[in-house]
């Protein structure tokens, strides 16, 4: 029996995998222990098919901490690898699942009072996944991307996010400048990270404002219209030993700095 796209009840051991055909229509393959376990625990996921080695099944059952929501199919590591991009580290697990349906930006803002990250044409799925992981670690409400210039949900993104794809809304918008306008109307102060800005993030004295942090692509930074839509531009202090930080590293450093400021003001960790 299925409920909300899942087969209910305890699994009675793995069945034999049905070969190495692709994911069901509309689904993507998630792989790796953390990504698969987080998706299995997420009631908003429509789960389609779980392939597992004996070791992978045992590991994910421990991580989920209860009955698996669908019966795994036994597959050897080579059969799982054949479904995934070359070099994907799957740890004996591959889960076919439908992409998540994100909330609206307004819904995400109402659900949490953390900062929001806006990514202006960040296209590497691993960078987006790593940013989602930092967003979860430091209490961000959502990550906003432009639909036309951002990667779709992939196994590489989910693995880099280490489960955070299931916890932090990844919201796709048609127009970044318009989304920034929505954030401003909701009372957020929009701060763009720009390596040429005269003021550092700490020096901007942002106080207890709720912020939206805007980050551009690693090579080109924010586009002109995005930069002009920000309320303020700041930079992260760094030596001249490197020209710039990877965008996911910059996001993590900025989010940590904001959390440290909150803790100094006596606010609880979110």
TrEMBL record:
Q: Which GO terms describe its biological process?
A: methylation; RNA processing
According to its UniProt entry, this protein's organism is Elioraea tepida
The alphabetical list of record keywords is: Methyltransferase, Transferase
User: What Gene Ontology molecular-function terms does this entry list?
Assistant: RNA binding; RNA methyltransferase activity
Domain RNA 2-O ribose methyltransferase substrate binding as annotated: residue spans: 29-103
Gene behind this chain? rlmB
Chain spans, region Disordered: 1-21
List the CDD domains: SpoU-like_RlmB
Compositionally biased region (Basic residues): 1-10
Protein name, as recorded: 23S rRNA (Guanosine(2251)-2'-O)-methyltransferase RlmB
This entry carries the following GO cellular component terms, namely: cytosol
- InterPro entries named among the record's database cross-references: rRNA_MeTrfase_TrmH (IPR004441), SpoU_MeTrfase (IPR001537), SpoU_subst-bd (IPR013123)
